[in-house]
Amino acid sequence: MPPLETPQSAPLPVSFWQAFLFWFKLGLISFGGPAGQISIMHQELVERRRWISERRFLHALNYCMVLPGPEAQQLATYIGWLMHKTRGGIAAGVLFVLPSLFILIGLSWVYIAFGNLPLVAGLFYGIKPAVTAIVLQAAHRIGSRALKNNTLWAIATASFVAIFALKLPFPVIVAVAALVGYIGGRIAPEQFRAGGGHGKADLSFGPALIDDDTPTPEHARFRWAGLIKIAIVGLLLWLIPMGLLLASYGWEHTFTQMAWFFSKAALLTFGGAYAVLPYVYQGAVDHYGWLMPVQMIDGLALGETTPGPLIMVVAFVGFIGGYSKELFGLDSLFWAGAAAATLVTWFTFLPSFIFILAGGPMVESTHNDLKFTAPLTAITAAVVGVILNLALFFGYHVLWPTGFAGTFDWISALIALAAAVALFRFKRNVIHVIAACALLGLALKMGSFI
């Protein structure tokens, strides 16, 4: 919640190492998928610390929403870059992913080496309803900020119908929303101004380090030379490891195929992890046989309940593939899995850094230009409908685990309701809610009630 008294002065400047510690903390607590992670960043960076204003935050988020890749990780990279240049962006983006990589390597090893543990099953039983409530809360939070008039409400509603009832692909929804915003920005510009033209959110938290009228930093100004430099460096960071894999193992080796496959997957993640999961499933399970269908489902559960982007499920896929294929021999199964998990994480996330560092200066040059911001404002409205659909997707699978024809899980429903009350009514911290629900699920599973 915003403070009762709005501060009148901007916070003190933040050093690189102060920001570094925050990004590290964020990587450890970024549960709840992209919606929950964006919600945490908004609370910390806009409301509490005031490192960036509401409008500048939403402008950066709009850009990240239209990119392939994990939007929450890209948003952290963008804000880190805006504050502390390239090293700030790299630190924010890497620290957003690194804790999740280590955690998933450890959990993947426990999963495949020791089988299904009742302890883990109990924790998951409580966490899944909590995640449903967190996503619903995020839809409410973003919607309350972005849907400032009936036009934007209509776009959000149409977006929900398009994805829920018509099953339209997310890129199509984004493209249509951008077109509506572009045309609407010319016909009725007052309907598509960032923040809805009311300014309530902009004023409620006080001045920010990067405020609405803060000039674009020198390093964030667009230059063709800078764009070309980033493109060349990014290409080399992809070509060199791919070339080494080809030279060391050949094209058909599992490592090389993983690098190529996840390079393609990284460019297809429009709309977040759920948009690309069918592609990953078809490739990793059906085509390459790196893991079995039931393992893919369990990996998704791990991805949902660990910090970091949901697309980090690719680390699980890589670990199981490297482990099961015995790439380093029977005596080094763990190291084969860890190497594969690290490899696929590199090739999956590299494009995200390039998109932010190369495209950020162009985005910064447009944050006061309505012809650019109107399409992005419409896209944000459309995303609210998509997030609501995601909440219903979670709710369906949690409350009817065997489908509508099966039994309604009323205990999960009560956990979800309790989590929602804690979030909406008592404004509890997301991490506290997840921890409490996990312990409740463990107690229920280990007890005699289920």
From TrEMBL:
<feature type="transmembrane region" description="Helical">
    <location>
        <begin position="378"/>
        <end position="400"/>
    </location>
</feature>
<feature type="transmembrane region" description="Helical">
    <location>
        <begin position="224"/>
        <end position="247"/>
    </location>
</feature>
<dbReference type="InterPro" id="IPR003370">
    <property type="entry name" value="Chromate_transpt"/>
</dbReference>
<feature type="transmembrane region" description="Helical">
    <location>
        <begin position="333"/>
        <end position="358"/>
    </location>
</feature>
<feature type="transmembrane region" description="Helical">
    <location>
        <begin position="430"/>
        <end position="447"/>
    </location>
</feature>
<keyword id="KW-1003">Cell membrane</keyword>
<dbReference type="InterPro" id="IPR014047">
    <property type="entry name" value="Chr_Tranpt_l_chain"/>
</dbReference>
<feature type="transmembrane region" description="Helical">
    <location>
        <begin position="118"/>
        <end position="139"/>
    </location>
</feature>
<dbReference type="Pfam" id="PF02417">
    <property type="entry name" value="Chromate_transp"/>
</dbReference>
<feature type="transmembrane region" description="Helical">
    <location>
        <begin position="259"/>
        <end position="281"/>
    </location>
</feature>
<keyword id="KW-0812">Transmembrane</keyword>
<keyword id="KW-0472">Membrane</keyword>
<protein>
    <submittedName>
        <fullName>Chromate efflux transporter</fullName>
    </submittedName>
</protein>
<keyword id="KW-1133">Transmembrane helix</keyword>
<feature type="transmembrane region" description="Helical">
    <location>
        <begin position="151"/>
        <end position="183"/>
    </location>
</feature>
<feature type="transmembrane region" description="Helical">
    <location>
        <begin position="20"/>
        <end position="40"/>
    </location>
</feature>
<feature type="transmembrane region" description="Helical">
    <location>
        <begin position="90"/>
        <end position="112"/>
    </location>
</feature>
<comment type="similarity">
    <text>Belongs to the chromate ion transporter (CHR) (TC 2.A.51) family.</text>
</comment>
<feature type="transmembrane region" description="Helical">
    <location>
        <begin position="301"/>
        <end position="321"/>
    </location>
</feature>
<feature type="transmembrane region" description="Helical">
    <location>
        <begin position="407"/>
        <end position="424"/>
    </location>
</feature>
